[in-house]
Amino acid sequence: MRILTVAFLVAASTAGADPVGITPDMMSVTVDTASGPVEIMREQDNDVVIEGDFARIARPCPNFCIQPMVPAPGVTPVGELEMLGFLTDPDVVVIDGRVRPDFETGAIPGAVNVPYTEAADRLGELGCEPDFDGWICDGEGVKSAALYCNGPWCGQSPTAARRMIEAGFPSEKLYYYRGGMQMWRMLGLTVTGE
């Protein structure tokens, strides 16, 4: 990995562009996905700008109201570096809480699509056991979940978090990336399908 990073830096320098790292010591993160390994890095074109729907900043509320940093008591808010860490952590599932058509327009590589409308019904995928009134989610094998959706104005993953908690999932095992796809794209990070 070190050799690739050095070679990449040399190639970027000779092209006249300053390399765009994730942190001063991290150029990329490789995550395993269902389609094979994917290298997540920032866009290297120093002149690129965000375009399309995610560039829109003035959307009427409702439906596009700003979401709180903590969607439910006990849920931990996180940023991009934590999300990158979760993508390589076998004890955490990164969940895209958007409806399938939104997911198909591009997602964080390695994320699992669990639309917010299905979140409370799919807790078995996190290691929970079904119960008469919901789920039992207190076993050693229960994974944590990091949720995201379209951005700070998207209510899909906050709704998923609340529904999961109501169904029996422990709030302390939930993480919320409020920045979502809008912030991910704004930072030029790799997106599926592009």
Report Rg.
18 Å
**Contiguous uncertain segments of 5+ residues:** 1-14
Order of helices and strands: HEEEHEHEEEEHEH
The separation of the N and C termini measures 23 Å
Overall helicity: 10-25%
Number of helices, counting only DSSP H or I runs of 4 residues or more:
5
* Major sheet summary line: 5 strands, parallel
Q: What sort of overall outline do the alpha carbons produce when their principal axes are compared?
A: globular
Estimated share of beta-strand residues: 15-25%
Mean pLDDT: 91
Major sheet strand order: 3-9-8-4-5
Category by helix and strand content? alpha/beta
Number of E strands = 9
Describe this structure in words.
By secondary structure, the chain is an alpha/beta fold. The protein is built from 5 helices and 9 strands. The chain has helices at 2-14, 80-87, 100-103, 156-166, 180-186; strands at 28-33, 36-41, 76-77, 92-96, 112-113, 129-131, 134-136, 144-148, 174-177. The strands form 3 sheets. The chain has a 5-stranded parallel β-sheet with strand order 3-9-8-4-5, with helices on both faces. A two-stranded antiparallel ribbon has the order 1-2. Strand 6 and strand 7 (134-136) form a beta hairpin. The radius of gyration is 18 Å and the shape is globular. The two termini are 23 Å apart. Residues 1-14 have low confidence and may be disordered.
